[in-house]
């Protein structure tokens, strides 16, 4: 087991299983490997665009809002088919609407 403090997640791996649990606003939600990799992609792409760290973006998407748990992960099926610029722009617009960004 290894922990990645930058995005606040715990990755558990073994020979036959890969799972990720993310603690969001005091609750845990299991993600598929694809969803977890996509969540990390979104966090890091947002961090690059906003000129900040993945840790700060993760906190904006979890502690200051429910965007990760209620938008990015559930909408993975649609979002992951879109381009990086569109995804980042879409999430930033949502962050502004929810008061996470100005």
Commentary on this structure:
- By secondary structure, the protein is α+β, with helices and mostly antiparallel strands.
- It has one domain (2-97).
- The chain is built from five helices and four strands; from the N terminus they run E-E-E-E-H-H-H-H-H.
- It has helices at residues 33-50, 54-62, 67-72, 76-79, 84-97, and strands at 2-4, 9-13, 18-24, 27-31.
- It has a four-stranded antiparallel sheet with strand order 1-2-3-4.
- A hairpin with a 2-residue loop joins strand 3 and strand 4 (27-31).
- The longest helix is centred in the middle third of the chain and has 18 residues, at 33-50.
- It is globular, with a radius of gyration of 13 Å.
- Residues 1-27 have low confidence and may be disordered.
Reconstruct the topology from this structure.
Layout: E1 2-4, E2 9-13, E3 18-24, E4 27-31, H1 33-50, H2 54-62, H3 67-72, H4 76-79, H5 84-97
Antiparallel strand pairs: 1-2, 2-3, 3-4
Task: Pick out its properties.
102 residues, 4-stranded antiparallel sheet, 5 helices, 20% strand, single chain, 50% helix
Write a short abstract of this structure.
It is built from five helices and four strands; from the N terminus they run ββββααααα. It has 102 residues and is α+β, with helices and mostly antiparallel strands.
Radius of gyration: 13 Å
> How far apart are the termini?
37 Å
The biggest beta sheet reads: 4 strands, antiparallel
Strand content: 15-25%
Helix vs. strand class: alpha+beta
Q: How many E strands?
A: 4
What is the count of structural domains? Answer: 1
- Look at the structure and give the mean pLDDT: 78
Low-confidence stretches: 1-27
Strand order of the largest sheet: 1-2-3-4
In DSSP terms, counting alpha (H) and pi (I) runs of 4 or more, how many helices?
5
Helix proportion range: 40-55%
N-to-C series of helices and strands: EEEEHHHHH
Choose one word for the global shape.
Answer: globular
């Amino acid at each position: 087991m290894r922990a990645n403090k930058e995005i606040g997640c715990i990755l558990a791996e073994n020979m036959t299983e890969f799972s990720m649990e993310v603690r969001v606003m005091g609750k845990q939600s299991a993600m598929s490997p694809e969803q977890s990799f996509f969540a990390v992609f979104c966090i890091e792409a947002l961090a690059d665009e906003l000129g900040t760290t993945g840790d700060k973006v993760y906190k904006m998407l979890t502690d200051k809002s429910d965007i990760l748990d209620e938008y990015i992960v559930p909408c993975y099926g649609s979002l992951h088919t879109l381009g990086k610029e569109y995804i980042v722009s879409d999430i930033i617009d949502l962050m502004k609407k929810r008061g996470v960004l100005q």
